[in-house]
Amino acid sequence: MAPPKGGYAPDLDKFLDTLKSRPVDASVEFLISLLKRRQIRGSESCAIATAHILLQVVAKDKWSDVDQLIGRVQLVGRKLVTAQPHELVIGNIVKRVLGLIRDEASEDRNDTGSDSPTDRTPTLPPAIEPIPLSKQTRLPSLVALGSFARTQSMFNLLSDPDFVPSPGSTPKLGSGASTPQGYPQSTNIHALRSEVIDGIEEIMDEIRQVDEQVQAYAEIVIHPGDYVLVHQPSRTVQKFLLRAASKRKFTVFLVVDPSAASTEDDPYSSLRKSLSSSGSTVVNIMNVGLMAYMSKVNKVILGARAITKKGGVIVDSGAAVIARAAREQGRTVIVLGGVYKLSPDSRFHHEGLVEWGDPSKYVNFADGEMVGQVRVRNAIAEFIPTDLVNTYITNL
Amino acid sequence: VSKGPVPVVPAEPKFTIPECFSHLSMAKRIPITQADKDVHPTVLALGQQMATFTIDESITRLKATLLAFKKVINSYTTPPGNTLARHLTPHVLNPQIDYLTACRPMCFSMGNAIRWLKLQVSKIDPDVPEAEAKKQLCSSIDTFIQERISMADLVITEKTSEKIQNHDVILTFGRSTLVEQVLLQAYTIAQRKFTVIVLDDPYERKGQTLAKNLTAAGLRVSYCGDFGGLRYYLQSVTKVIVAAESMFNNGSMYARSGTCDLAIAAKQLDLPVIVLCETVNITERVSTDSLTYNEIDPERSSSASFRLLYDTTPDKYLSLIISELGTVQPTSVPDLLRKLEESN
């Protein structure tokens, strides 16, 4: 366990600062402990942290062939995923990096490495596209797709990177050296290394650009005079609202975290200030059941923690009841989330699977009668089934 | 009409209610000095208790109001040249009612009872001596409390606790004294073996009191502080029991905000949603959404935030209404009203 530096709890920035100065293994252990202790939390932070650590693995680790690298990335990835299984984005990033490596390696093999991809960053499509759910069936592996596979595409994201047709390489945990040679010994490890590093940096760029790209749809979605309900808005959702507010006036019903609402300072005061300066209104709603407001609300905008294979959305606890109310009242539910949050994971199909957290949120530990006798539960994330969602807006 | 210098305190609320909710009413603390001079001291105190939500449940407010009015009537003497039947209501009762309404908007049960009380006053024969008339009024208030509140609660508790079976998992929302009575009776008297999940509103946390009272009696209780993971909890639940603040004539239920969301989630899983409601809470009005009748929470609303106290649950999400006059489907609420009229 890495000790916290400077006497206060480490977070993402702290972790990124220390990355360069530490050996890779120490950084991996550090990240694992940060994830376990939820000191790095939220899908964006987790995704960025994962990308950074994998970059270190690729850049600093000693590896002599592709299989070794893949094995190493898989090992680290698996550790990270186990450390925080509720953050599906960690697995997504690991899978994308694995795909990237396989992609580059197969390009190498097919000797098409010269045409380095130029169309990596996809341009914005003209309209909002729902996630192509019909195309989520297990696709042939990247190897089979050959050099035309693009890691950034949705196909590859949702394909299973662990599924490699025999006699392809399936390195087991930490046994990278002993696996059969699926990929040819790359003549130029250095070239591959820098290709992969470039690829990972592109992934990081993509994560950073998500908010901006998602924002572009704001004017299409939010109309003048709308009543928009948001639940504990993430930065993505906040920026989305701000963009719309720059063009038109509307009212935002902002559902706050009840435990934070008891304190005096409003965590969304800056959002309120910028929105009201452009003429829109923000009302913090201090209710947990939102059906009372639904007759007034035009649309509900939710930020996704992750989106599963079948379109279910993992959200902050409290959002599912909003989505259900909106559905009952026939209101539009819009989910915002970068493509990197799309997960091929299907463990979460079981409705109502919930991430549990600190029960002291509402019940004080000093309250002996409650602590001793009553079973107290507190959800921090929950699941919205596909049928409660109308539209997904991603950066693709 | 108040006389003498009255300190000028701005009557405006300290924040602006969002335009779209400006039609809704809100409790406010009126300084006792600002109250009409005709307001009886008991009523003055009661108004403060209501404005601060110390007395909160519809039925408790009703009972407290009736008892206070008994005191008002007892301390009343008809001025010479007037009759009780014509003087009491406009000159004595109305100022009390206005004051109580200003402290906190009346609940439907209070409206019903006050209408009934005014009718009783108007029916008093002018020839009856004053002492006799006052005694009559007080005894009919006692009967009203006895029949419509105490007996009603007793009957509802009895009927509902019979509906609880062994191995049931009962989910309830917040704390209602009636639901608490039902659960305690089913456990201690009817000897049913069941467990309870208390779902709570994180802003009020009254469910914690319920959870403590139930565990003190020996029941097994789980507690959830908010609506996160609601669907998960409901998967193990067999019955949802809630208490209504009021029932509308079209079968909709007026209850603590959040009850509607709970009922929707329960209905999706085909769980029975059982509503407890004394008939005195039933109103002849009709409401289809939550913004027709509602109340703004004065405690937790500020310049930046807003909170509604109630919501309206359409009848399609409810299964049974248990009242002292019978157990009916939500669509048959008008039948209960008709029964009431017949019995009067």
TrEMBL record, chain A:
Residues 176-186 have a biased composition (Polar residues). Residues 105-131, 166-186 are annotated as: Disordered. It comes from the Eukaryota. It is found in: Cytoplasm, Cytosol. InterPro entries: eIF2B_beta_subunit, IF-2B-related, IF_2B-like_C, NagB/RpiA_transferase-like. GO terms for molecular function: guanyl-nucleotide exchange factor activity; translation initiation factor activity. The keyword Mitochondrion does not apply. Its main location: cytoplasm. GO terms for cellular component: cytosol; eukaryotic translation initiation factor 2B complex. Keywords: Cytoplasm, Initiation factor, Protein biosynthesis. SUPFAM superfamilies: NagB/RpiA/CoA transferase-like. Pfam families: IF-2B. Belongs to the eIF-2B alpha/beta/delta subunits family. PANTHER family: TRANSLATION INITIATION FACTOR EIF-2B SUBUNIT BETA. Component of the translation initiation factor 2B (eIF2B) complex which is a heterodecamer of two sets of five different subunits: alpha, beta, gamma, delta and epsilon. Subunits alpha, beta and delta comprise a regulatory subcomplex and subunits epsilon and gamma comprise a catalytic subcomplex. Within the complex, the hexameric regulatory complex resides at the center, with the two heterodimeric catalytic subcomplexes bound on opposite sides. This is Translation initiation factor eIF2B subunit beta.
